Amino acid sequence: MSLDVLVVDDDFMVASIHRRFVERVPGFRVVAEAHTGADALAAVERLHPDLVLLDVHLPDIGGIEVLRRLRAAGHDLGVVVITAAREADTVRAAAAGGAAHYLVKPFASEDLTARLTEFRRSHEALAGLGGAAGHVQADIDAVFARTPQPTGPRAALPKGLSQETADAVLAALAGGDELSAAECADAVGVSRVSARRYLEHFAATDRAAVRLNYGTAGRPERRYRLR
Which residue has the higher pLDDT, 79 or 101? Predict the structure, then answer.
């Protein structure tokens, strides 16, 4: 039996990418996309999905407010917050609203797969409890257990590269424009050589694509974009 997923993101292209990520994971199917908070609330009432992938920055009602309204209306569905927002207040509000996970954009499909797999495991364990009393501790632990999944750039940064700078470089690429090492260095506040190391790492791990820009003279410029 597949779990139904509602994808909520104001960017149509990003929503489509997230849909494809979900549909690669066995046992999940996307039943709809919503691009505003109001549409998300209406879709939940209409479709009763098992899980919502919820962006925070929506054009009408913010994602955190959508989460609060869902809980106030009695919807106990799973929610994975997916956003570029890293502020502590936003993270706390998501946790207080009962979000199952909080994923920071940009991320690899493997990052989402790990969260979906964990959600499905917990969902199935909860369904297995049924209404009977006297369950053993192991059954209950299966509902709450979370197994850390080292995925994305955190799992394989070469020696000498810091996670903080890696996140900053990914954020610069997330703007959508191609960047040279020099342009990335200016955006992040590091040296061109350092920016190039991070960009080449992401290219080698298939997080970024590289295009050679042939000018009028000299060596071609390497320009990077997020995949």
Answer: 79
* Nearest in space to 223 (alpha carbons), one of 194, 182, 192: 182
Q: Averaging pLDDT over each range in 43-52, 141-150, 177-186, 187-196, which range is the top one?
A: 43-52
Q: Are strands 179-180 and 78-83 parallel, antiparallel or unpaired?
A: unpaired
Type of residue numbered 188: V
Q: CA quadruple 214, 198, 89, 56: dihedral positive or negative?
A: positive
Read off φ and ψ for residue 25, nearest 5 degrees.
-95, 120
pLDDT band at 136 (very low <50, low <70, confident <90, very high): low
Between residues 53 and 226, the one the model is more confident about:
53
CA distance 96 to 99: 8
Answer whether the bond into residue 158 is a cis peptide, omega within 30°: no
How far apart, in Å, are the Cα atoms of 42 and each of 14, 37, 47, 66? 20, 9, 9, 11
